[in-house]
């Protein structure tokens, strides 16, 4: 299917268009209706009448943006009218919601009279928290934005004018750093003299580019002093003394090319005349002023960016407007200042230099992304853009004196992280606990790129003190290739460690009655998993995370043999935290016990409940089966019922019930209606204990693969010391998550030393 038909089908199939309005409060009963509308709605109305600022408390105003267009400059399609431009405006609404959780009403206004448009938005001001102007032709767009900023007390932002300016500024800041040139010395040439070009040029001047070093070209050639054809007051701002009259003339010796015009405006021969290591941002869409292939063939030394997602360095406005409005709305800014826009550009530039999560790289079909000529600005699907840019904008608004409320920036970043979904919110509890008292976490597979990246992230975020096992030269070389700093990360070579013989003697004493000789102990310690486990046992590390280069069972064996189970613990158990439908569930046993007995299931339930509590989640345990409270009599269901009895005997305060089918366990309404005697009551079940490994493993993998849930883990329970085994397909975020959990586990055990005592050795 061609792109045209695919795009038409995308918009037409199913529910027409791309957006809908969804209520955020229940409206199911007569009482709900009386609160949502008459008579209850009168109360917030009266509060707002007394204090207009209360509208931000009792209505959606503070999270609602108007996306406004009159259809006079839609994409590259020109003046096609407001109705034809509506799909673009709906698209902006989708992007606002998807990337920054901002609600949008799109307003297509049937007027080309600037005063009429301005007056319309002035009348509508009470409805919105901000206004995003879009696809309004120049020069009217400049006047409209200026007047609205003067007469309105909410932020107004013309994305065509400022969006590209902010994103391209970030690209230029980083590209100039890579080529070793300074803002005050470079010459910049523009192809195009519309709203985007002028917005960019004004932003570059604020960054430090000299006005006389900017040459702007339109369809009549270079805008120079003395030119009268096709000029207006806005173009006159960029007229300079120059002998250049054509784009080709202007490009000779230029350091930077900014394309905001049309396909094919630049030839390879023109690029060849530019200065050494030129920066080429050819941003015409869908086809740039010169193709990526042509530019690289003509100037292999250039840093190239386009507006397309299928080439490096996409200059995409979605990196700006959602996050700028997020920050502005959250401090209730009266306007958007130059300082806020510059802060956004600098935040994007800084983020591009950070280590990039694997999930971001994989979204673009790449194995990794590293700051350099092919990666000078973040990718739109990098979830961290929200946190970095919105917080920078909010800080600038407070600094510039346009914020109505002031935020604690650390707390605000945490709030932004929670907007990314329940997974970030739930894990944030563990991350916060880990940062309070970081512990030493040893990684036996220290030369794996994923481990190196995770260690760098953990050290930078101060969530752990990583220890990597392996050859220091190899690990440092890999880190340098990945452009990661390991200054605070300890690297240990097992064979060369001064503790090697101490560990060998201790391991021999530990397992001499299990057939291990001293020579065998020394041989065993040459394997990094055994050495790492001994580091934990001997107190030279607080926790261990392994598994990315071996089968799960192979990673588990050294932990069982060296660390053993805790006192009174029958066997180790596996648990996954599954984040689905914005809720957190703990599923066990998902990795270890194939056919657990009733006694095993009781232990699994108790340990899983403790883990849930560590995450700050109330443990309400459902023991799952294919029967609900005796509806089917079978040895399998009897085993589950017996496990509930044993768990209650061992832990009388534990909220647990079963046997129960999964759908019933997850429905508080059905439990309350049909099984009022159940201990699970009317609250949500949070811990699901499966009758065997087969069903548990299948369930969590189906949820994560087909259901779109995020699975965190596996979390090992029952070992005498904090240690966990990852699946070998783990990504960097999985390693970081499990390491943070290991740190918190170590913190808890060190507060309760008795828990650390070793019980059964395997």
From TrEMBL:
Transmembrane segments: none annotated. Keywords: Multifunctional enzyme, Oxidoreductase. Residues 16-149 form the Malic enzyme N-terminal domain. The keyword Transport does not apply. InterPro entries: Aminoacid_DH-like_N_sf, Malate_Decarboxylase, Malic_N_dom, Malic_N_dom_sf, Malic_NAD-bd, Malic_NAD-bd_bact_type, ME_PTA, NAD(P)-bd_dom_sf. Residues 161-398 form the Malic enzyme NAD-binding domain. The keyword RNA-binding does not apply. It comes from the Bacteria. Pfam families: malic, Malic_M, PTA_PTB. PANTHER family: NADP-DEPENDENT MALIC ENZYME (PTHR43237). In the N-terminal section; belongs to the malic enzymes family. This is NADP-dependent malic enzyme. It comes from Chloracidobacterium sp. N.
